[in-house]
Design a protein that fits this description.
The protein has three helices and eight strands. By secondary structure, the protein is of the alpha+beta class. It has an eight-stranded mixed sheet with strand order 2-3-4-1-5-8-7-6. The longest helix has 11 residues.
């Protein structure tokens, strides 16, 4: 086994695609108790504070939801899981996954539980989205 160039720091955020954004906000914000940390209205994206992690709700009727394709089928409404990693050495991370034959997207700055910071998207063997997220 090769040395992994980072240590896991926990889940940064989970993104859920919502057919009924009002019902989903009602549950996560009002019932579960996750306050809104940020609302990106142009994208139809709500960032909810989940005690140090984030739950992001994407309105399927919004710009980002529409870009993600058709609404998910039954039981398939999670877009990706983001995991904090430290240190965030993009070159080492990309090399690590390339050595394992796993394609990863170029690093980009994205919003998460600790604000804007670097991240890299890839997919697991089942095709599920995974984001490795560094601190800003």
């Amino acid at each position: 086994m090769t040395d992994i160039p980072y240590r896991l720091g926990g889940v940064d955020h989970v993104v859920i695609r919502a057919r009924d954004i009002d019902a989903m906000l009602g549950f996560y914000r009002d019932v579960l108790g996750c306050p809104v940390a940020k609302h990106n209205a142009p994208l139809g994206l709500w960032h909810l504070d989940a005690g140090g992690s984030m739950i992001d709700l994407v309105d399927m009727a919004g710009k980002l939801g529409a870009a993600g394709g058709p609404p998910p089928g039954p039981g398939r409404n999670v877009d990706h899981v983001a995991i904090r990693v430290e240190p965030f050495d993009a070159e080492a991370i990309l090399a690590h996954f390339a050595a394992h034959g796993i394609a990863a997207e170029a690093p980009a700055t994205r919003f998460g539980a600790e604000g804007d910071g670097p991240s890299i998207y890839l997919r697991d063997p089942e095709g599920n989205g995974v984001e490795l997220k560094g601190r800003g």
